[in-house]
Amino acid sequence: MNNLRCKGWQQEGLLRLLENCLDPDIAKSPSELIVYGGTGKAARDHASLQVIKECLLGLEDNETLLIQSGKPVGIFESSRETPRVLMSGTMLVPHWCTWETYYELAKKNLTTYGQSTAASWSYIGTQGIMQGTWETFKQVALEHFKGSLEGKLILTSGLGVMGGAQPVAVTAHGGVVIVADASRNVVKRSLMTNFIDIMAGSLEEALEYAQAALGRKEPLSVGMTGNAADVYEALLHKHVIPDVVTDQTPAHDLYGSYIPAGIKPEEINQIKADNPEYYKQLLDKTILRHMKAILDFKNKGSVVFEYGNNIRGAAQKAGFAKAFSYPNFISKYLRPLFCEGRGPFRWVALSGDPEDIYLTDEMLLSLFPADSHLREWIQFVQKRFTFHGLPARVAWLNFAERPLFGQAINELVKKGELKAPAAITRAHMDAGSVASPYLETENMKDGSDAIADWPVLNALLNASCGADLVGLYQGGGVGMGNSIHSGMTIIADGEDLTLERIKRVLRADPGIGVIRYADAGYSGAKKIVQTGGFRAPMLERN
Amino acid sequence: MIMNDERLFLYARRGFLQDLLFNNITNARDILSLKKLLGLDVKFNTVFVLTIDNNYSLTLNKSELKKQELRLNVMTALEKMAEEVGMYVLNISEDLFAILLRTEQAGILDLRKSIKIAQIIIKHVQKAVGINVSIGIGRPYRDIQNIHLSYKEALSACSRKFFSGGGQVIHVSQIVPYQEDLEVFSDEMGSELTINILSCNAEAAVKLLEEFLTQSEKLENLNPLLLKTKLIELTTLMIKVALETGAGSQRLSEISGETVRLLMQSDTVHELAVIIRKTIAGITQEVSATRKKRNLSSFENAIKFIHENYCRQITLEDAASYVYLNVFYFSHGFKSFTGLSFIDYLTRVRIEEAKKMLLAGETSISSVAKKVGYLNTNYFGRLFKSIVGVPPSKFNPGNGAGE
Q1: Candidates A30, A194, A385; nearest CB to B106
Q2: What are the phi and psi torsion angles at A223 (to 5°)?
Q3: Is A380 an 8 Å CB contact of chain B?
Q4: What is the spatial distance between Cα A66 and Cα A253, in angstroms, rounded to a whole number?
Q5: Would you state the pLDDT for residue B106?
Q6: pLDDT tens digit string along A273-309?
Q7: Chain B contacts of A30, Cβ < 8 Å?
Q8: Quick check: A273 and A282 in contact, CB under 8 A?
Q9: pLDDT over 90 for what percent of chain A?
């Protein structure tokens, strides 16, 4: 656990994170170096991976390793206060930033696609997805239902890796959810792994279960096999109007993964091969019906939002003019959190011992005892989640909480209460670290959706403040040409010198997010800039 | 008695692992904390299920102590391996063990590796205990909370040894879902079986059912439960037929109960065959014993019939049909019952009656012949002489003077 293979814990910590990303318990396909999200890789190829490891093993405390799209390209003398690893990933000059060009370049082994946290070696498994979904439904409850989903019916669809978290999140907040998936196998797998409570044989049966649970005000998740468009229409026909309607069908990959109505999953390949045009027509037909049903629910009073699967974009492309007449979940529910620099903060026990994480959980709750929201999350996640790979925890902390908690972690390491140092990191979908006009920065108040200076500044700032790994990447989450985002990791090794860096980085990293939203005109963020001791010259002047 | 910590630990570990396999721990944190507290360092992600092949035959007529010995020997062999390779072993039931271990998760290569490990375990147990075992392998689950799924899969994989026989390693990903189609069974077999039981032809009945099992074996994906159900149904049919012959209902219900229990427990087709052979033997024995008892009275009745009707032209067929027996069967049975064939017995009765008449002073030989059922006086005379030694005319000493 405490065996240092590298010349310092900074290098060792990063090496362990890289190895963790490719742990068979974590990675989607370790042999191909694919960590998650389709083809998100942790290194360019096996040769690069090998060299990266060797570089980290030999890297001095005052050296910095440069990684260009997963390939180690240089080591320079820097200082103890600066990053050990700097990365840039999947960056293409904007005019050339298309999948076609990317594939051409990747074929020549000039670049690779790292999604988000695969590239920055900070992927920790599905807990992050669970936390995002949990947080979203919490915000839905707070915004519309006085903080609880008790007695509320939620309708959604799609039980894949992302969507599977929905039923768990809804029931965690006391609600009742009916979730449809076109594949019976997927529904069954969700049932086996406790992601849904009951598998219903029909919509009628699902409704019976749901209504009984609503009557008793008990949480319940009911999964059923069915095409989302069919199920949504049938519910409308029955005049059942859920309190909340969303979906997580794979509409972002319409041709590849979305399943048209009337087609069984096992029939898809043949139809696609025999008559791709006909298949496309079926897809369009279904997506139009799906979208119309969602909007009908909206008109009849349901709370409706898109869950980041770009179904609105797909429907618009298929000819649905008003597809964008409802919001996506981030701009609607998570933006207020981003305004206070609150986002997907996470830390990893480099010892590999779960008890280290449970100890930090307790430390976190004792630091913020009044935060019932945080307590609920920690209790929930402790009950529901074990760890695979290195034990890690996600918690959405704000700009003020992060540096405090970072210091506390460093203190635990210093006192030897943790069995080894911890890595402090985050997802890329944070307040100041991403520009993504289809998701995180959709419909910004000042129209700055596509402005990508912020994540670039965020990365430069984190490097200046002394994070141990800083990287800037393109195309994560929403695909080539659609996003720019940065990653950050700092290793808490218990040293006093590190403490200063932790304080700086954990203040600056979410801080630039607060400034970004204040700059865009969000009052919550503006207030924090005024009272939180930020230096934002133009905002000060106004 | 105070147990030392080590032993307490051993029991606690077993309890924990068992709860884990049965999905009885609700809190993820508890799982991790207990695992650590109990010093279970191996990061297992896969469950193997090991069963003793032909356990029924192996333990037949053995004492509980002997059964225990077998179980513990397997356990010891497995635990010895566990120490070397880092895995945990649990005894789940009489012939079933669970092994928790780590297999990697990179697809086909690991599948082969898992199978190889299982083969090594089988060989080891074979060598150490001298018996055959089979292993079912579940999929690896990266989340320890889902390890019970791997266990369930391993169980289902292991049940496939039913057709493939012992010494097998079966991975859950290699199995095709069971065929649940009842039409694989023909109904004709029932009526054929009925005939075999009625005629106490155990050999033919066994042959019929063995052919049926061989046919079933070819349908690899047939659900063993379905096959067992069918055999239970056929057993019930045989029992019913046997009961109708008047066979002892207590013994038959014993046979029926025992058969059902053993059929359900059996884990290979081979065992099914052994059990069914024994059952058929039991049923036919019971039918034939009852029939023997019942036949005694049949022949007594037949004798009574002969004594009452010797004066008429009765035949073997008449007697057999009087006691409701098949002529052939009656003829054989009558001889073994009386020591004489029907016709010899009838002749004796008639001659005895004739002697009585002659002694009583009857003088007309032709009248006597008619009265005892012979139309031809000469024939009667010849028979009489051959049995009594003298012709009827010379039989009554008192009459002799008249000639």
Answers
A1: A30
A2: -100, 150
A3: no
A4: 33
A5: 56
A6: 888 899 999 999 999 999 999 999 999 999 999 998 8
A7: 106
A8: no
A9: 80
- Token pair of B78 as six digits: 């497995």
CB contact under 8 Å between A383 and B29, yes or no, is yes
Q: Out of B27, B104, B106, whose CB is closest to A383?
A: B27
Q: From chain A, pick out residues whose CB is under 8 angstroms from the CB of B26.
A: 383
Residue A214 token pair: 């609503």
| CB neighbour list of residue B283: distance below 8 Å, 6 or more residues apart | B197, B238, B239, B242, B247, B252, B255
pTM assigned to the model: 0.75
Whole-angstrom distance, CA of residue B256 vs CA of residue B263: 10
B86 — alpha (psi -120 to 50), left (phi > 0) or beta? Answer: left
Residue A379 touches partner B, C-beta closer than 8 Å: no
SS3 A347: strand
Pick from A217-226, A257-266, B111-120, B393-402 the range whose average pLDDT is largest.
A217-226
What's chain B's average pLDDT? 84
Distance from CA of B141 to the nearest CA of A (A): 8
pLDDT higher than threshold 80 for residue B238: yes
The 10 Å Cβ neighbour count of residue A446 is 11
User: Around A392, how many Cα atoms within 13 Å sit in the side-chain half-sphere?
Assistant: 27
* Closest residue of chain A to B142, computed from CA coordinates: A25
Q: DSSP for A398-463, please give it.
A: -TTHHHHHHHHHHHHHHTT-SSS-EEEEE-S-SSSSEE-TTTTTTT-TTS-TT--HHHHHHHHHHH
Residue in this structure with the two tokens 């000819």, named with its chain if needed: A319
A397 in the Ramachandran plot: left (φ > 0), alpha (ψ -120 to 50) or beta? beta
Would you state the structure tokens that stand for residue A126, as one six-digit string?
Answer: 């599905």
Q: Is there a contact between A383 and B145 if contact means CB atoms under 8 Å apart?
A: no
- List, as ranges, residues 91-130 from B with C-beta within 8 Å of A: 104-106
Long-range contacts from B272-276, C-beta under 8 angstroms, 24+ separation: B272/B213, B272/B227, B272/B228, B272/B231, B273/B209, B273/B210, B273/B213, B274/B56, B274/B57, B275/B56, B276/B206, B276/B209, B276/B210, B276/B213, B276/B231, B276/B235
User: In sequence order, what are the residues at sequence separation of 6 or more whose Cβ sits closer than 8 angstroms to the Cβ of residue A46?
Assistant: A33
Sign of CA dihedral B22, B28, B34, B40: positive
- Look at residue A128 and give its three-state secondary structure: helix
Run of H or E residues at A479: none
Q: What are phi and psi of A350, to 5 degrees?
A: -70, -15
For residues B250, B252, B256, B262, the Cα torsion angle rounded to the nearest 10 degrees is 90
- Residue A189: how many CB atoms within 10 A of its CB? 17
A304's enclosing H/E stretch is: strand A303-304
Angle among Cα A302, A308, A311 to the nearest 5 degrees reads 70
Kindly indicate the confidence band of residue B105, based on its pLDDT and cuts at 50, 70 and 90. Answer: low
Interface predicted TM-score of the whole assembly (ipTM), two decimals:
0.72
Distance of CA A105 to the CA centre of its chain: 27
Which of A149-163, A509-523, B328-342 has the least mean pLDDT?
B328-342
Q: Report yes or no: A305 and A329 within 8 Å, Cβ to Cβ.
A: yes
Q: Report CA A19 to chain centroid distance, whole Å.
A: 20
Q: What is the pLDDT of residue A231?
A: 97
CA distances to A68, A472, A476, A488 from A76, rounded to whole Å, are: 14, 19, 28, 20
CB atoms within 10 A of CB A140: 25
Contact yes or no for A71/A44 (Cβ under 8 A): yes
Are A386 and B36 a contacting pair at CB < 8 A?
A: no
> A97 burial class (0-12, 13-18, 19+ CB within 10 angstroms)?
middle
* B 124-183 residues with CB < 8 A to A: 142-146, 149
DSSP string, A236-269: HHTT---SEE----SGGGTTTT---TT--GGGHH
Q: Does A46 touch chain B (CB under 8 A)?
A: no
Could you tell me if A442 and A331 are in contact, meaning their C-beta atoms sit under 8 angstroms apart? yes
